[in-house]
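Weekly structure sync, notes
Attendees: PL, DS, HV (note-taker this week)

Item 1: FMN reductase
DS walked through the input record. Source organism listed as Desemzia incerta. Sequence as pasted into the shared doc:
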Amino acid sequence: MKIVGISGSNVGTKTRTAMDYVQKELIESSPEVDFKLIDLADYSLQFSDGRNYLEYGGDTGYVTKQLMEADAIIIGTPIFQASIPATLKNIFDLLPQNAFRDKVVSMIVTSGSPRHYLIAEQQLKPILAYMKAQIVQTYVFIEEKDFYRKEIVNEDIIFRIQRLVEDTVVLTDTYKKLREAKEEEYGF
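Item 1 (cont.): predicted structure, written out as tokens:
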């Protein structure tokens, strides 16, 4: 099973900190999983211009191919100006409409304010549904107060990250088995 994590901004540290907790949890709880963390701050991505994702080279080609080859994706995103960052939206624009078909996608959201809790529901989930993702319905919302010196200090948040990782792995495995059983029915 291949899972790709995205730290969906090219600025700030809180989302990357949360995604580091995801990576640590996956390594400890599911060492058989091939996990790759992509921090968009580390890549120079082109803006989408409508080409097929396979036509992009460099960092853009690498990131899009990693996402297309993944069985599951864990998206970490901050909330800026009551919206997802442009860098993350650009990733969605680079990919085909059905890019997340047969993929499980889960989310971690970091925000400076509890008022942004529903941004994932109102903006991110509709995009993922449009792209045919199997969405893990519960997501982890982390506020400014839950961080201290690049560490998560709220034990409940750490527990919810552990649960999100577990749900992502279990759902990915379950959907894979269901698809395999359905394909066997065809007999060819």
